[in-house]
Prior knowledge:
Number of helices: 14
Shape: globular
Number of domains: 1
Mean pLDDT: 91
Keywords: Heme, Iron, Metal-binding, Monooxygenase, Oxidoreductase
Radius of gyration: 21 Å
Cofactor: heme
Strand order of the largest sheet: 1-2-8-5-3
Organism: Amycolatopsis pigmentata
Order of helices and strands: HEEHEHHEHHHHHHHHEEEEHHEE
Amino acid sequence: MTGETTEPPQLPFNRPTLLDPAPAFAELRRRAPLVRVRTPAGDLAWLVTGYEQARALFGDPRLGRSHPDAAAAPALSDAAIMGGPSGNYDTEHADHARMRRLLRPAFSAKRMRALDDRVADLVAQCLDEVAAARSRAPHRPVDLHAHLSFPLPALVISELLGVPVTDREYFRDLSDRASRMGSGGDAATAIAEFHAYLGRLTAAKRARPAQDVLSDLVRAQADDPSFTDDELAAMAAGLLFAGHETTVNRIDLGVLLLLANPARRDGFIADPAGQVTGVVEEILRMAAPADLGVLRYARTDIEIGGALVRQGEAVLLVPSAANRDPSMFTDPDAFDESRAPNNHLAFGHGAHFCIGASLARTELRTVFTALFSRFPTLRLAIDVHDLPVRTDQLTGGISELPVTWMP
């Protein structure tokens, strides 16, 4: 691969619909598990399309989020989150270990169980809004994205972090702005606003701590003076982004995957308790709102899949491509709620396995069970090809999800 003379393919790749992967991934996978591409920012990167290689690299300490020369590092985009390098190159592994240690209690099984009922309450509130929107305009489609998919994850992650109810709309808007590409600098402004906001909120938590993640982190600062306010803000920003944007897309695309096949939808409605776990895992495997991947940098030279990745070069791990690898998944383009095992990489793998995976699964199981129990005749109100795609967002997805149902 190091002798390539043709211009590397340009991300993002064209795809038939939001429910179908870009054909280019399969074509590139047949060529090699790692190939050179150009990012939306115009920089060169290694794209990982093979499952085996992606799984190994997710847990490989020779890759990291930081770069020894951040100003010169290849970029994915100009988004303020996950668009380029982050963290301190010299202390990244130690900082990551500390972050996991600090956040482990917040995402413990006990804390998640305590949050279950609250998630169900928040889902019910959003579904009440869906029903109310239909009552206000009985003959018009209802935007499920606006009333459920977009607000719910922000409500849940705000509940966990300890964000006041009155601030949650602002909090949600910051997440949306920070992950926007081509914003003319507004994404960076959003991050600066977010850090300033968190400074005020953590000061309030010091004065009146509660049972929430921000209060836990403030208490941790008392035991570890080296844990700075900037680090706390960066940690909270990462939690907000991971807990909001990715879950929004999984709700939207999960609904589309179920509605795309009436028999699949009806089978789920007939036995939600028996099917919901398998349905959610298959949604996690197949839902691919954006195909830009997870950005990492080689901390040393790495040889993998026949390619030599040099120190400092960018590597894009693309779970949506790895999750369609036929060497791992039989009939990978088919939705199979009974697929077992289903060892997808939607939450990464190894040391960087998403710490909020159990929360995301709880949200998705609760959402799909409640949504289709309350609106069993739910259907898409427009053709899937006509859905408005968010091309300016790092995480992709759609900006509207018009649905209707029999009264």
